[in-house]
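User: For documentation purposes, I need each entry recorded in a consistent format: the amino acid sequence on its own, followed directly by the corresponding structure tokens. There are two entries in this batch. Please keep commentary to a minimum and don't merge the entries.

Assistant: Recorded as requested. Entry 1:
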Amino acid sequence: MLIGQIQIISELKRPKHSIAPGEFLVIGRGAESDVILNDSAVSKAHCKIFYEEGEFQLQDLQSRNFTYINDKQLAGKERLKDSDIIKLGRSTILFKLVSRKEQTASLMLDSINPSLKKIVLKPQEDKHLLEDDLFAHVVLSMPNPTVSRERIEECRRYQKTNPASSLKKILLEKKYIQTKELQTIQNAIENILKHEKSEQSLILEDSSQKENLAEQSLFLKLARAKGFLNIEQIHSACLLHRKHKEAKNSVTLLEILLNEQYLTSEQAQEIQNLQKGHIPYHIEGYELISLIGVGGMAYIYKARQISMDRMVAIKILLEGYRNNQYINDLFLSEARAVAKLNHENIIAGYDFGEKHGISYFVMEYVDGISLSQKLKKCQGRLQAKDSLEISIQVAKALDHAWEQGLVHRDIKPENILLTNKNIIKLCDLGLAQKTGENQTAPKEDFGTPAYMSPEQIRSEPNIDIRSDIYSLGVTLYRMVFGSLPFSGSTRDIMSKHLSEKLRFPGQSMTKEKGDLAKIIHKMMEKNARMRYQTPKELLEEMLKLQKQWDKSIASGTMEVMVEISPSRLEKGYLTFFKKFLKKLK
């Protein structure tokens, strides 16, 4: 006997629900519905699927926006056939008739360990990811899009009646895109998928980890750096941990990694020893003191250069990359790039080499904090004049790098250091690349999704300094307004960088913030040709604004708005009234 099965094809995970003969399903957005849709255009109890007289039937429950079957409005009730498409609100449902055997297999897939489920379902999931919303986002974000939004919608309407056809396939069949364009689109999609699987993104999306995010993130970075874990294992462990949390099971991420045999107890102990300060390396001429962090390619240690009796920072290439010629060349290129640069606002390079199979790079050590740490100390944002001054110094560093033909490719608060004398130092030039070099060669993850330019997300060849200007624009936005311009999951953020219009918070928009918003808007234009074309051009605009502000301060006409928390505001009023009452007495 055949049973009914519906699949919500408008949702990312495309969940399935089964209806056996004699059963029924109410679909709607209300809590009482059997299948709940997160869709405001759907009524609380929108429609019903039931079994009657040997057939599955669909009935509208007097919904406000009606129910459609194969694009025809449902009148009363109607018999459901295999592969019928049901439309309600903005949601689309595929109805299928399946055998008991097929249904049992489907239920088994839904109940197996998430680690195995991911491996089994990944090809199909990735197929949908590439062919639906993400594909459309990337197509529409191309610098000179050949496909309009109207044509995308036309293809989506066609797809409703042909759910087996992907959006990519339909666009190609209709000749709306050419085969030669697909590679650029594919690069962007792969870049987004790659970044959303980073250990940082996975931990951030697992809300149960937010209490000890830094500790968990460092543990996973060290485990990957040592070659003990790969990203697929981290992904599976995070999924399992989320399920345990939802079931209110008290299970740690480390316990899952051990239980799934992704890590041995010896490996876990080795990582914990590194976290506690154990240093397994010796480099002649240097005394390694403590681990500062783990980057994409290297450990970073605080050390003392014995001959000069000075503090330095040493990068040591990760074990997993030591036999990778491309990564070794990239590591060496960083050393050469930094050695060529001589600027007050760029970390200086001192020495590099390879001893006993360990590649290392010695740099200037900055006694200070990162801009990221500074923002945390200042309740998430800085005063407008401080934000401008920091951006000016970073722009000066970019201008010097650009004169040497270098692009940084990872401008963000974590890579901007502030010395105790308020001098900005741009660091982590591991991603820096000489313009004109082959940027299509295989490479590791580069850039940070929240700060990446559209062309960087699309993995375009020959990315230039305008990409760094975009990333600095995101950083300036973060300093001034206390948040990132685009929020959501890694995928959401990267998609928004490609296609969503930049908006600024309407509240507390002082004149100074408005001045900076104009500059940020130009820095973050989606089309690189519409941005400031060089750091020098950007610097001229920023220095001109700084000069105007200085004149306004001197003349006493500048509007200054001090932002304080509500609790501090209440205390301020209380102090004021106490002083006022004293004067009255």
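Entry 2:
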Amino acid sequence: GLNSPLGEIVGIEVLDHIIICDKKYLSLKRQGLF
């Protein structure tokens, strides 16, 4: 919310982390490791 900028920052970092993990998983999958 507007009253919790820290919460929004953490949310963005978590989202970034999920996206990065997703990309790593996809690239590994492409290489046939999964």
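Summary note for entry 2:
The chain has one domain: 8-33.
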